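Bug report (template v2)

What were you trying to do?
Predict the complex of my protein with copper (II) ion.

What happened?
Run completed; filing so the output is reviewed.

Input:
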Amino acid sequence: MNKKLHLSFIIFLTAIFISRTAQAGDIKGKVQLAGSKSNANVLVYIEYVDGSFAPPEKHVVMDQKNLMFHPKILPILLGTTVDFLNSDNVFHNVFTPTECAGSFNLGTWPTGEIRSHTFNDANCFVTILCDVHPDMQAWIAVLQNPFFVQTNKSGEFEIKNVPQGKYILKVWYPFYKTVSTEIEIKSTGSIRKYFTLKK
Ligand SMILES: [Cu+2]
């Protein structure tokens, strides 16, 4: 290991140490979708956290493949640019009637091409549609802060390193009633939350 690399490694470890010792806690739990076999991909997020959070420079991709959007549920941080890719051998379109996202229509484009859109309004749940294929549907959740996750196959989730404070935690899934609950993150440790979402 050369000296420069060694130094950056030490800085990296120090940064981890500082972030671990900052006053922050984790939220762990499990979500059940009533009447559904799968409990995966449910969105769990904190509605508002103080501060401004830089969106990722790297674009996030929503693909159109086998006449479906992938992923179907895409949570992003405010200001993120999404690249809509067409991986099918047919034309696809992307549009949304959702007003908080500006009801845009990106037009229709062939295989291999991308059109992009930057989402600049927080707490906006955007329905993504294709006017060529009425059965295609996806959702983009534009969130104010990066403290969001999606459940795994068992419905489990974990939001790490949430700064100490009181928040509203929300659980969202298409066609189900959103659940909201007040939480308090103490200086260290984790809290556990269990939810059942109903239609
Ligand atoms: Cu389509």
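What did the reviewer find?
The chain has two domains: 24-51+146-199, 53-144. The pocket of copper (II) ion is lined by residues 64, 92-93, 130, 132-133, 136 (CB under 6 Å).
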